[in-house]
Amino acid sequence: MAVVSKVYVARLAGLAVLGPDGESIGRVRDVVVAVRLTGQQPRALGLAVELTTRRRIFVPMLRVTTIEPQAVTLNTGTVSLRRLHLRPGEALAIGQILDSRVRIDDPDLADLAGVDVTVVDLGIERTRTRDWVISRVAVRTGRRGLRRRGETHVVDWTHVHGLTPTDLNLPGQGVAQALQQFEGMRAADVANALRELPAKRRDEIATALDDERLADVLQELPPDDQTDVLKKLAPERAADVLEAMDPDDAADLLGELPDAEAESLLERMDPEDSEPVRRLLSHSPDTAGGLMTPEPIIVTASTTVAEALARVRDPDVTPAAASLVFVVRPPTATPTGKYLGCAHLQALLREPPAHLVGGIVDTDLSRLHPEDSLEAVTRYFATYNMVCGPVVDDQGHLVGAVSVDDLLDEILPRDWRESDSDDTGPIPRITGADIAGAGA
């Protein structure tokens, strides 16, 4: 295999990363670039590689042996599993530089002098000293006449002005390439990627996401990042995003804000969406009432098994919440009519679709109360081997349900999304077990 010496960074995204013996390590998600002062050629320092555990690590370019259409091969299996963190003066090529606006002074493109153009790709090249540098920049002009898109030109980096830390931090730089990279990714993975970006770029991407997608991503960010992003949104947009969030997650986020700010956002929300959030905020966050979701799967005894299973199959319902269907007398909106019991998912799967849920209600499962402490909730799940439990008030009304993921969010340290338990530096040759262990 020939040693590669030139490549465009956009073509690297998604390529498999292999060790010297062909073992899979992860996939390329970006290229880390040292953005220098004007007149100094930017260096490509290494790859942002996503492991199978979804963690992103840094792999120096000096470790790259070959780059082929389907894979990047390293010259060693010894890599650091430390999470990727950008240092001052570093930037992500795809996440920050592509889609940014620059100007060129190429004499062969005199008609573009002084005109803003958009960076669509970066050509990196290995030098005699084995360093990788940005040698070419692909740019696109704006639309002209009836053309749907502008023309693309490849120019030498020396004719490009705007690839400096100061220029990249200017407001209004494009985010199309970053958004395209996030398509199809889980919300938790997008949240991890956003955490690696400077606050400016993160806020630009958050602004560009639609309300529901941003709501999903916000729910996966640490509390401090959640509030930072929300405060950067216009108040009306912030209220729309809160409406798209699960009520318990919206309540947790509003609980991090000063009372006046939280109340202002609640007043802007639709009353139908703000009412369950207000009820959750009335409970202490370390009680069953503060942990619960007010929108579990709720049916009446006359609901058929087929209808109940259709509710369970909703892709927006988490596996833990889908493990129990709660049976009540009307009304079915929380706080419901009298709570009758629950139907376990396994029991529903064993019943003919036309049978009624009322015939398989479990009336013996203990209930949680809104005032139950965090310790009591933990003991409940451990005692009954459950991943979801009903929360019932003193009048016998179902007011919500606590799932094990709600409990874990409260038990784990506040910064659990940001900390790594195994940041111990380089390890010997990577194996599948090593990578799996990285997420333990």
TrEMBL record:
Domain of life from the UniProt record: Bacteria
All copies of domain CBS, residue ranges: 361-419
InterPro entries from the UniProt entry: CBS_dom, CBS_dom_sf, Mg_transptr_MgtE_intracell_dom, MgtE_N_sf, MgtE_transporter, PRC_barrel-like_sf, SH3_actinomycetes
Annotated coiled-coil segments of the chain: none
UniProt xrefs under SMART domains: MgtE_N
Renumbered residue ranges of the record's region Disordered: 416-440
PANTHER family: MAGNESIUM TRANSPORTER MGTE
Protein name (Swiss-Prot/TrEMBL): CBS domain-containing protein
Species the sequence originates in: Gordonia mangrovi
